[in-house]
Design goal:
Layout lengths: L6 H25 L56 E5 L4 H12 L3 E6 L3 H13 L4 E5 L5 H15 L4 E4 L15 H22 L8 E5 L3 H4 L5 H20 L6 E7 L13 H5 L13 H12 L1 H4 L6 E4 L7
Parallel strand pairs: 1-2, 1-4, 2-3, 4-5, 5-6, 6-7
Amino acid sequence: MKRKPNYKLEGEKTAERYQKIQEQVARADKDKPKKKEERPMQAGARKYPEPPMVKQHLRKPGKEAKLDTQPMSDAPFYKGSGKLENKVAIITGGDSGIGRAVAILFAREGANVAIVYLNEHDDAEATKQMVEKEGKQCLLIPGDVANNDFCTEAVRQTVSEFGRLDVLVNNAAFQLHVSDFEDLTEEHFDCTLKTNLYGYFHMAKAAVPNMEPGSAIVNTGSVTGLLGNKDLLDYSLTKGGIHAFTRSLGTHLIPKGIRVNAVAPGPVWTPLNPADKNVDDIAKFGADTPMKRPAQPEEIAPAYVFLASPQCSSYITGEVLPIIGGYTGG
């Protein structure tokens, strides 16, 4: 007759094994020397600034020319290879920050570029000169993407100037923190939604009828749309909405042959954040990522090239690509 297992005894023995392993790990932890404070990770082609960042606050909308520590956008070690040869792209918020770096790399890859921006005329002119230095043309179009008629006009001007439209980069954004939910006014909430959601919708609605199969839309999402942010309630809401919009529009436009994807950056050194945070908070900007520093725009821009180029991502649509300096694993 088969003997009945003593499950209670087995449980006791397993618990003893757990305790033995626990004691081994505790001894190992006790014997290890204290870890030195980890330095910010530097894994790029050149060294990037580390916290503490410059203590500086900018007035909205935030002009890059006024930043004491200039964002690094020119990507001198990035070599173009014709990934966007003879293409035409519109980049909203292309005057500075991520948009500027994307404009430079798009031009380096062979695209003419239209820059849509609010009123940062000096920044936009500087970006235009950088695009032209790459041997491509740049059209500057100032206005508010929250206005549907303006978005239609921006697309019309681009197609009239260059004869086509192949890539739309929705990147313009409004971000402003609130410490208490009660401080988030309807005007503030409305401004964020109108720029970050309506602006993307209006631009896509105007662009799609002018796009041929093989064209692409690349939206700028955010880590806040993935993880939330207690001080950026409205901004996080819009970025989560952009991610959902990307997935949905990506599927919807498959019959037209137009791909739609998003890049979701973590903290990036652009005018957006010094025009939001107070000077003490901006000094620590990016320090709480696993890499312990903010990204520079030129570290983010190649992802836009990848998602815009039919040579690189023809089988990718509806995806959200996080570039957030690592995951905590906590």
